[in-house]
Amino acid sequence: MTPDMVAELMRQLMKECMILAAPVLIATVLLSFVLSLVQTLTSLQEQSLTSVPRLAAVALILLAGMPWFLGRMAAYTRLLFTDFQRFLG
Fold it and tell me: Could you give the CA distance from residue 40 to residue 44 in angstroms, rounded to a whole number?
C-alpha cells in the first residue's frame, strides 16, 4: 500500500465522518443560538435551560437518523471491502 493510497483512504474516511456528523452539529448549533438568544432576551442564566433541550435534540436526531447513518456507514464499509484487492496489491 503506497502513501498515496493511505492518503486517499483517509480523505474518504474524513469525508464520510463530516457527512455523518453534519446533521447533528448543525442542529445543535442552531438550537444553541436560539436558546442563547432567548436567555439573553429574558435575562435567564440557568445552565440546565440550555443543556437539556440540546441533549434532547441530539438524542432525537440520532434516533430519527439512525437508518440513514447506518446505511451510509454500511455502504462505505462495502465500498472498502470491494476495493480491498486494489489496496493490497
Answer: 7
